[in-house]
Amino acid sequence: MKILPFGGMRASGACPRCGATHKVRQQCAASTTPSAPVPATSAVAPAPRATEPGLTAPVTYIAAGAATSGAQAAPGGAGRTSARQPTHAAAPQPPMVWPARRRPRVSAVGRALRCTAASAATVVLVSCVAVIGARIAELTHADQDTGAAIITIAVSVGIGLVFGMGLMYVSARTYAKVVFAALSLFLVTAGCLLMTLAPVVRQASTAGLAPQAFAVLLWFGALSLACGVVLGLACLRWTAERTARRRLARWARLAGSAYGVLLGISGLFGVFALLFAGAGGASGTNTVERALSITAVAMWSLVPGLILTYQGISASMGEGSSPFHIPRAAWVAAAFGAVLGLGWFITTRDVPVAAPMPPLHVLAAALPGIALVAMAARGSVLRGAPVRWLTWRQVLLAAAISMTVGVTLAMYVESLGSFLGVVLLLVHNGAFASVQDSDGFFRTVQDSRFILTHNEQFFANLITASLLAPLIEELGKGLGVRFLLRRDTTRSQAFVLGAAAGAGFGFLEAMLYGVAGVQQGGPGGWAAIMLVRGGSTSLHVVNTGLVGLAWWYGVNGRRPRTGWLLFALAVFNHAAWNGFATAIDSRILGLDTLSGHALEVVAYVVVGVVSVAFVAAVPLIARRLRRADAVPPVSGPLASMAPWLG
């Protein structure tokens, strides 16, 4: 069995038509029907070699009246296999032959010209965006020429569309779509900022503002927001195409490796800082908090950096990856309990020792996610075999992409949303009436906690935590699952990849929130804090697993409505969890009448019940998906191959 660089597996064999050995999905030269897939054998999947550890020969089904491998059907039924009678293949079978989509070859000169044109188009596009932003700012000043600024904006828009976006799309479509995705994020951000600053400008008493400043910011902000949303939806639709992953994979390995090196270097600096912090041999509460803080910062970048660097370089060199085989969840859960017990013993001492706490903190943050991924892969806590045909590279990359792209996107959007919500509430209270410059604006925003009422602060936090955070976090965590989907990925595999992405996100979140809890309540509550964060990790695992299923139904299953429903369910679960946490933290809806201890008990009980429900849902969903994957498809491009499907 050969494991390909992207994680795919196939058995070697000769084509029954021409006798040559083909690559996966490569068209046979002797085929008379190149438009349809030609099965090389009656087996559903090639049988792995018996010498491979962890893999067993799959059960294959032979059509009625067909002979078994290596033997002809004898007259009178001797040697004949009945319909759907299981039999084990004795030798590896040749792969299924699929028609390959040939692409025209491009010479080195042509590639150089395309790269040059794409680079020039990028410079033109960035320059036009900068000029447009500067001219919009000029329109808000009273002493500027309005007509000249509008003409400049119109000319810059035309040049950017033709010589920027148009030339870039013609030269390098894949690169252009990635740039368009970044441009859509920028346009949405600029539109939201302009529309939020419009009422601030109208309320402020700045003498140098033009009378049309409010209208300029409002209309240009609405136009920028609309263009960004349309462009973002177009990019999101492109990601649902089956060719998106294959086209991005050509340069994503190099970019991921370079980004991983940068993250790994920054994480190593954090590890060195941790070693120097403990070099003095001091112990105590402050030392424990400092050691945990440095550990969280170091692991935040070191873990995803090492994964991206190693897997990206090995994939670029053509090296394969071993099959995914994870320990049973019960063993990992027992290790998690031992870590919590040891950490509780250390942190509850009169003088806690800081040296063993960094590795214990990392293990306490990582083990719950590993146990949940084991449940998703095996469908059981004590038994079950892992989902087949997955590799460690796929699982680790799903977690690493979630820890980088998902976390970065979530932090950016949540910070922006919180800022805009506070500004709008300050405008509602008339807080900018005496502001005359930008310094006064930022001073007013910094003093918002003294200006806004308790209910207004709760409303701003609720909008950010229950609306923006669930939507952006689930989308960001699931992007890695999307680009790891292959044509032959099953629902069970998609759920495991989503669970791994959620576990990676939960790991970083547990590292950060665990440190924050220790800084607020002291090291004595470390074990209880990490136990609660383990329950929060179950939320991320289940929800991102549903997002992985949503991508499968949207891309492979060709059922986008089901995909949208699963994504909406994941966002709803996340929003309900965050809404409860915000209500507890803000002590709203009568919760302020409870004592601190009673409120803590209520929070722990609710989190415990919800976490148990999510943990129990993981193996149930995994087993149901396995039964669904065992049923052959009834429609789609494989329906014509019913005689060869078991």
Account of the protein in words:
The chain has 16 helices and 4 strands. The chain has helices spanning 108-139, 146-171, 173-203, 213-239, 243-277, 285-316, 329-347, 357-378, 392-428, 438-446, 448-451, 454-482, 491-521, 526-555, 560-586, 596-630; strands at residues 2-3, 9-10, 59-61, 86-88. The chain folds into 2 domains: 110-239, no CATH class; 243-636, no CATH class. The radius of gyration is 29 Å and the shape is globular. It has 646 residues and is mainly alpha-helical. The two termini are 22 Å apart. The strands form 2 sheets. A two-stranded antiparallel sheet has the order 1-2. A two-stranded antiparallel ribbon has the order 3-4. Helices cover 66% and strands 2% of the residues.
List the helices and strands and how they pair.
Blueprint lengths: L1 E2 L5 E2 L48 E3 L24 E3 L19 H32 L6 H26 L1 H31 L9 H27 L3 H35 L7 H32 L12 H19 L9 H22 L13 H37 L9 H9 L1 H4 L2 H29 L8 H31 L4 H30 L4 H27 L9 H35 L16
Antiparallel strand pairs: 1-2, 3-4
Helix pairs in contact: 1-2, 2-3, 3-4, 3-9, 5-6, 6-8, 6-9, 6-13, 7-8, 7-14, 8-13, 8-14, 8-16, 9-12, 9-13, 12-13, 12-14, 12-15, 13-14, 13-16, 14-15, 14-16
Could you list some keywords that capture this structure?
single chain; 646 residues; mainly alpha; two-stranded antiparallel ribbon; 16 helices; 2% strand; globular; disordered N terminus; disordered C terminus
- Helicity level: 55-70%
Strand content is under 5%
Count of helical regions? 16
Poorly predicted runs are 1-12, 31-101, 279-283, 633-646
Series of H and E elements: EEEEHHHHHHHHHHHHHHHH
Distance between the termini: 22 Å
Derived from helix and strand composition plus strand pairing, the structural class reads: mainly alpha
Query: Overall 3D geometry?
Result: globular
Radius of gyration: 29 Å
Widest sheet: strand order?
1-2
Largest sheet: 2 strands, antiparallel
Domain count: the total is 2
- DSSP, total strands: 4
Q: What number is the mean pLDDT?
A: 78
